[in-house]
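@channel sequence for tomorrow's demo:
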Amino acid sequence: MGLFERHLTLWVALCIITGTLLGHFLPGAFASLAAAEVAKVNLPVAVLIWLMIIPMLLRVDFSAMRQLGQHWKGIGVTLFINWAVKPFSMALLGWLFLRHVFADWLPAGQIDSYIAGLILLAAAPCTAMVFVWSNLCRGDANFTLSQVALNDAIMVVAYAPVVALLLGLSAITVPWDTLLLSVGLYIVAPVLLAALLRRWILSRHGQPGLQAALRRLGPLSLSALLLTLVLLFGFQGQQIVQQPLVIALIAVPILIQVYFTSGLAYLLNRRLGVAHCVAGPSALIGASNFFELAVATAVGLFGVHSGAALATVVGVLIEVPVMLSVVKIVNRSRNWYEARERA
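structure tokens (generated this afternoon):
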């Protein structure tokens, strides 16, 4: 992980502060940007989201799914956490903390929107940063690649139904046409485009050419992420200045969720006798989120000024430091984990 990536939390925080201040002092400019929409899709945000997602998806080799049988236990645990535990536990945590425990400190009209943002965040397994987390915990590269490719394939068909189900259970109205449009724009189209672009680069320039392209596009992806944060927090600037406590309260269920899901995945893998080099990335993939997709879907469904958009962006703020702490736990517990194998 390079210097820029290691300090991503700092850059995220600076962009949040910058966006918030700009939105507070230049509300007219951000109102004009927010109005640049076609079919409920905010065009500036859509462009930046694509610049984020496509370089990340270029790393995914869908042919790696042929290797699924080699690590079927670890794959099974991660799928269970990603699709049967994480979205539902986040809906429960959001309902518990935002609708009850913290209700008196949150704007009543935005609570449903905040919960919707948390659901959108939890229903999208991470597909990019997990390569970094896996490398830091000395994870099996083939397992990580296989798992990410499988999650991307599942997201194409499962993301919309899972989100719609949980939003419905939370008594939040689901505009199905907008949800399907978001899935098409931010999952199906980028996955297809990235797969075609990856295939073309490999056919013309081979693996060295692909690695060179990823190195060049990496900064573009992160820059687009940071600019998106400036925009989103600019849209919310006045609200955040008036209610800074909201961000801290939204972060609480996200933090609990990360440690709960990563710990559960880690323990299940140990129980099943899975090697540590698979259990580590399994826990990290199970806990991290595809926040770029969540942000884009929240903006499409609820608008750039919504609590849902704010809730998904809070996930970006805490993702890096929290996941680094999980990496540290996984690495430090290696001897304990492998003691079961030696026993």
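heads up for whoever presents: The CA atoms of residues 94 and 115 lie 5 Å apart.
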